[in-house]
Design goal:
Blueprint lengths: L8 H21 L4 H23 L3 H21 L6 H15 L1 E2 L5 H34 L3 H35 L9 H31 L8 H27 L8 H5 L6 E2 L3
Length: 280
């Protein structure tokens, strides 16, 4: 029988099955971003089926299936979010289900840890560089007197947003999860890890719902020579500037490691009555 901290895992799994089914319909009925929309239809359709199978058979194998499903869906929904921002809410849903399942991950070997840590540092630095680049482009677009420079800045920003920013976010967060869960640090044992993870997840949620809409509007508004960024341009600069500051804060947290351990660290070190281990 599941212990109390995991009592919500099965109902949440049913809820995610419903969420995935609805999203598959939303992606199927929408238009634009064809490739990403097709990926969303296929991904959510498969997730709905696997979610139902896991929820119906809620034993160790069912929980293991749910854990693996949400480990895959958490980063995949970054990509789906290019077509429909509602997919970004699924990232939070997947992480909540994972937390309720309380999986136990084997520690990485020293060699694997170095590889994953190197990848995480590289992708995180890349994400920060992308944020800085997009902030500079937003400032150029807002301040430029020349129409070609103004519109060109927003066009380039739009391309970087889709082609570079989204993969950078997904890879940085995914590698960070592997490093935290596969080492002594854990995800909820230390305040700095939890704060850094919260920053990393909040940025794509805001980017998918606010920043992308601002960038799209400005790219269209400045097609004509008389189109001016106005307050929308200022809002985009402020949004991207906030992302850059937040990513610098996450970088500082990684170096300083402040605040000590959370109240949950002892509970996370205690073996549950029916642990769900993931085999390598």
């Amino acid at each position: 029988m599941d212990s109390e901290p995991r009592s919500l895992a099965r109902p949440l799994q049913w809820a995610f099955a419903a969420f995935a089914t609805l999203n598959a319909g939303v992606f199927l009925a929408g238009s634009g971003a064809t490739v990403f929309r097709e990926m969303g239809v296929a991904g959510y359709g498969l997730a709905a089926v696997l979610s139902v199978l896991a929820a119906m058979r809620w034993d160790r194998d069912g929980r293991r299936l749910a854990i693996r499903l949400h480990l895959a869906m958490a980063p995949a929904q970054f990509v789906f979010g290019i077509a429909e921002p509602v997919a970004l809410l699924g990232i939070v849903a997947s992480l909540v289900v994972l937390a309720q399942c309380r999986p136990r991950f084997p520690h990485l070997s020293p060699r694997a840890r170095r590889i994953w840590l190197t990848a995480h540092v590289g992708f995180s630095v890349g994400w920060l560089g992308v944020a800085l680049t997009m902030t500079v482009l937003a400032i150029i677009g807002w301040a430029a007197d020349s129409h070609p420079m103004r519109h060109g800045a927003y066009e380039v920003l739009h391309v970087i947003d889709l082609a570079v920013a989204v993969p950078s976010m997904a890879l940085s967060i995914t590698t960070g999860l592997v490093v935290s869960l596969g080492t002594k640090w854990g995800l909820v044992k230390h305040w700095w890890v939890l704060a850094k993870f919260a920053i990393s997840v909040s940025i794509p949620l805001v980017a998918g719902t606010v920043e992308s809409a601002l960038a799209d509007e400005l790219a269209l508004r400045t097609v004509e020579p008389g189109g001016q960024p106005g307050a929308t341009g200022v809002a985009l600069v402020a949004c991207l500037g906030a992302f850059t500051v937040a990513l610098w804060a996450a970088t500082i947290l990684s170096v300083v490691k402040p605040w000590g351990r959370t109240p949950w660290w002892r509970r996370s070190d205690v073996k549950p009555a029916s642990p769900v281990k993931l085999r390598a």
